[in-house]
Amino acid sequence: MNYWKEHASLRAVLIALFFLAGLALVIHGWTMTGRLSGLGLMIVGVILLLSALMIYNKPFEGGKGPGL
């Protein structure tokens, strides 16, 4: 049973939510020039963007594909 392949709509909603929230945090943190809290917001935004990428790639891992 592959949870992420069976629940494609949930996966799409989570990817969109993480992507938009991450992008908003990165842009808002970028506007806070010279503040340490801006850097923190940007780091959290990058983590959310990487989480969206991880959720996107989950259904494709472990399959039979070209190896390196």
Describe the overall structure.
With 68 residues, the chain is mainly alpha-helical. It has three helices and no strands. α2 runs antiparallel to α3. It is elongated.
Task: List the main descriptive attributes of the protein structure presented here.
mainly alpha, 3 helices, about 70 residues
Structural class: mainly alpha
- Computed over alpha carbons, the radius of gyration is 16 Å
Which residue ranges are poorly predicted, with pLDDT under 50 across at least 5 consecutive positions? none
User: Would you count the extended β strands for me?
Assistant: 0
Q: Total number of helical segments?
A: 3
- What portion of residues belong to β-strands? under 5%
Distance between the termini: 26 Å
In which range does the helix fraction lie?
over 70%
Order of helices and strands: HHH
Mean pLDDT: 89
Task: Give the biggest beta sheet.
Answer: none
Form type: elongated
Briefly characterize the structure.
This protein has 68 residues and is an all-alpha fold. The protein contains three helices and no strands. The protein is elongated.
Helix-strand layout with pairing:
Elements: H1 3-6, H2 8-31, H3 36-57
Helix pairs in contact: 2-3
